Batch of 3 targets.
Target 1
Amino acid sequence: MQLLPPYPARCSPDVDAARAHSAAWAREVGLLGSGDPRAEIWDAQDLADFDFGLFTARVHPDARGARLDLVACWYTWSWYLDDFVMERFKRPRDLPGARRFLTRLGQMRTPGTRPPENPAERGLADLWQRTRAEASWCDRLAAQVPNLFDDALWEVANLATGRVPEPVDYLAMRRRAGGALWAAQLNELVLGIEIPAEIRGTSPVQRLGEAFADVVDLHNDLVSYRRETEYEQDVSNGVVVTAAFLGTGLHDAMRRTRELLEARLELFERLASIEVPELLTARQADPDTAAAVARHVQGLRDWLAGDYQWHRETARYREDSWLRKGVRLPAGPTGLGTAAAQPWPS
């Protein structure tokens, strides 16, 4: 059984402005080269291929103007961080170096603690400064960003120790520390809403966020399988951990991962359309709270639809995007390609 995306993909009309702004910002803070060859992870063609401005406009189609620009820079920085950690620490299995780097990076959350010394630090310091006006949201983001560092360190540790995580541990870590819950935080910033803590902390809303995170992560694992296993030589991928844990072949691991994705998407929609509205009724939520939750739920649906569409439209996970860097793929069978990994038909 294959499940079609249940939500239509839309795009913010300010996509071109977000694309131009985030690209100019990436150059300004040094994400496209700063004179230090150790920091040069991307070139201009990479930025064009990945098109994070389009990604932001797809996953936040109702965002406009300066707020869309800001969030586009956050996403650009987060992907740079992911690729930087992969190139500088995952490839050489350098766990101590990753720990030192991420510890220093975390200090950028406190202005004036130390001057930024590399593009990742300059980018994060600038983003904190630009986001500081959103005081309450900024505090929540500050609590979530360290989880991104935990995820990066955990992935380096898996490679350094030769450990392939078990599926349950893998999903739990990705759910807590991966980028999807962080993206859900950005959703509230983009929409200009803040769900009251007494609602945000309830089981249905918490499970909604977890199901959302699982759909995002498992979809990425399917479409990024070749890039992560052949180019990045990584083991932090749901298909890899499923195959290793069950001792099964890749086709079966792909099928099982796809089925799990479909189950989590079905749960997400049940929570969004039934359990969360029932919660609001039971709690006698005021109209403003009910409207904020409804907008948040719709924002998450938009995010899932836009994420899927962006994966189809850009070269981030296409083979040619890393072959042009002179990467030599291993001889013989190389696993399943992106087309075979699609969780939904095109």
Target 2
Amino acid sequence: MEKTPVIDYLSKDYASFRRMMLDHLAQRVPTWQEPSEADLGNVLVEILAYAADYLSYYQDAVATEAYLETARLRTSIKRHVRPLDYTLQEGCNARAWVQIQVNQPTTLPKETPVLTDVSQFTTHTIIAPTSSYYADVLKQAIAFETLHDMLLFPAQTVSSSMSKRGRKTV
């Protein structure tokens, strides 16, 4: 009676699939040898191991996306909440409109930090990062950054969109 080869159901990668197929061939065809990498038998085993590795990865990805708790892709989460009549919005960074007043034409560089109301902490409108209370103000205020370079003029009231950089920490 012919001995049935042992199948390792935990094989999940190319190397383990290849080794399992070569072991299976050694049992089924004892006279077959692996003479070279270019041997047709070796080529077929490696192609099948590659396909099995790809399918194993695909199965893992499908299983991961099948549940809301483990889904990693936004499209999968959208599909999970759609039957509940919930529409998942695309979302964007927090933004704020800021009014800036200047006495002379000035360029405000991109990524300039702008803080929420800090009047309770200081009477200064500009807080230098080297000042002694800069770290204390950052703990209480929410920081935004400008998205673009802006040329500011005293005769205009300038508003600009800001992107939220930090979160309020208590």
Target 3
Amino acid sequence: MRRLLLIAVATAALAAAGCGPAPSPLAPLSGVTQVSAGPGHACAVLAGGAVKCRGDNEYGRLGSPLVSAPGYIDVPVPVNGLTGATQVVTGGWHTCALLTGGGVRCWGLGYSGQLGNGTNQSSSTPVSVVGLTGVTQLAAAGDATCALLSDGTVQCWGANGVTTSTTPVAVSGVSGATQITTQCAVVTAGAVKCWGENNFGQLGDGTTTPRAAAVDVVGVTGATSVAGPGTNCAVLAAGTVKCWGFGRQGQMGNGTNSDANPIPVDVTGLSGVTNLAALGDVCALLGTGGIRCWGGNSFGELGDGTTTDRNVPVAVVGITNAAQVAPTCATLTDTTVRCWGPNSKGQLGDGTYLSSSVPRTVLQGL
């Protein structure tokens, strides 16, 4: 799809070939409390609970009447009629938001039931997920969405390669969960349980057998958070990281490039990690405010100034005050956002369509 031309509100056109992006008249996006980035679009929650998204609007996943579907835009636009958001998550072609009070609304592609409203219909405006209350955290990836409930159980909807549902269903074998992805959960005492596809050992149970019910990840204790899916990694209490699953581009972070890794391995040279994000590459937020990434880097997803895959962690250039990490994006302590990596659909939100191997500032947009 050709880029969306919104001359009155978008940034200046790209400069002549070889001259880089033209300067933008827009100020940086600020007041951001949380960000999420998918393979073609990204979104941010603002102070006050509004949500803004940018990038590819195929299937209406930006949720904005200011962008036609299909179409795309290189600066953030507001999600239509959405207020009171505390978290936003981006899947492959859909988006969901957790609202104050524990309800959930989703928009975008609905073919696999990933909007959770009992249909397979797509929607360019947010629709309510049926039957969910008391949600404390969301996760989305591909065609799947999951919710952590206040009682420590997990419910998922959409498709995870093993099961499909248009409404939330409980994940069997999970209780006492404290943090989730669409494939794994940290549970009581820091153990990790995973479910779903397992062709690359992404369940970490020593096999490549898919599981409809959650199984224990072997050798992981004291976990504080987990990131994934596909390549799954956990932060341990000591601030170190273990990874398992798909590792062809170095996602294990231990100097290897093996496809399947059904047993968790230690990531090389990492300490002081507080959180993780994973989407074809893995990034770790350090307690110092820096970020280190490893894995696939074809479009600069590691933010190290190169497009070379890395099988050990490398520092993201110029990030020293990060407060939150998402795949290819970071929220800074000053509430602005910087992103890096692929940008053919404007998903970096910097007013250009040029990919970048170093972080760029997300602009205010509309």
